[in-house]
Amino acid sequence: MFKVGLTGGIGSGKTTVAELFAAKGVPVLDADRVARDLVEPGQPALAAIAGRFGPDILKAGCLDRERLRRIVFADPAERRWLEALLHPRVYAELERRMAALATPYCLLVVPLLLETGRRGLVDRLLVVDCPVGLQRQRLQTRDGIDAAQANRMLSAQIDRPQRQAAADDILENTGTVADLAGPVERLHRLYLALASDSRPGNAAPPP
């Protein structure tokens, strides 16, 4: 199965783009959703987090995500610890879920795909892009945080030029959802064609 990775800076609109692909029947596997599943009550990862940060990291037995976010974005060492705990589990679960699919292609939404050095997981990389100032504005509005906290979150990811350089496709997201419909349709057709070409027996003959 052909695998398209979708990534982009925080606040760039990855979820919106993924929903447009999903509406076309494309399976979407979201690393953030997998990570949330892994820290549900009773999961080993949640026990490890509570052991690291203490019982106050839980609220009614569930992970206090806002408290954890404040901690890890204020302390790079704690963020690295959390990533070392979750990232291998997230990628293993993504692989497991991909193996169960039988579609021409799937979309893997992985915000830190490049930061974790996993570009080789996918056959093609789509980057959702917008100016950093717009990312910051969206992030502050979405999460109700101040500019300083937004900047700390933005600085935890690679910069915009690096993402653009790694991309096979770039989808600019500076307007409305309606503005994305045409570009997503064109990309969907492209990925279907690439998926067809990548099937065994469909390779181009050698020159």
From TrEMBL:
<dbReference type="GO" id="GO:0015937">
    <property type="term" value="P:coenzyme A biosynthetic process"/>
</dbReference>
<comment type="function">
    <text>Catalyzes the phosphorylation of the 3'-hydroxyl group of dephosphocoenzyme A to form coenzyme A.</text>
</comment>
<dbReference type="InterPro" id="IPR001977">
    <property type="entry name" value="Depp_CoAkinase"/>
</dbReference>
<keyword id="KW-0808">Transferase</keyword>
<comment type="similarity">
    <text>Belongs to the CoaE family.</text>
</comment>
<dbReference type="Pfam" id="PF01121">
    <property type="entry name" value="CoaE"/>
</dbReference>
<dbReference type="GO" id="GO:0004140">
    <property type="term" value="F:dephospho-CoA kinase activity"/>
</dbReference>
<protein>
    <recommendedName>
        <fullName>Dephospho-CoA kinase</fullName>
        <ecNumber>2.7.1.24</ecNumber>
    </recommendedName>
</protein>
<feature type="binding site">
    <location>
        <begin position="11"/>
        <end position="16"/>
    </location>
    <ligand>
        <name>ATP</name>
    </ligand>
</feature>
<keyword id="KW-0547">Nucleotide-binding</keyword>
<comment type="pathway">
    <text>Cofactor biosynthesis; coenzyme A biosynthesis; CoA from (R)-pantothenate: step 5/5.</text>
</comment>
<keyword id="KW-0418">Kinase</keyword>
<keyword id="KW-0173">Coenzyme A biosynthesis</keyword>
<keyword id="KW-0963">Cytoplasm</keyword>
<dbReference type="GO" id="GO:0005524">
    <property type="term" value="F:ATP binding"/>
</dbReference>
<dbReference type="GO" id="GO:0005737">
    <property type="term" value="C:cytoplasm"/>
</dbReference>
<keyword id="KW-0067">ATP-binding</keyword>
<dbReference type="InterPro" id="IPR027417">
    <property type="entry name" value="P-loop_NTPase"/>
</dbReference>
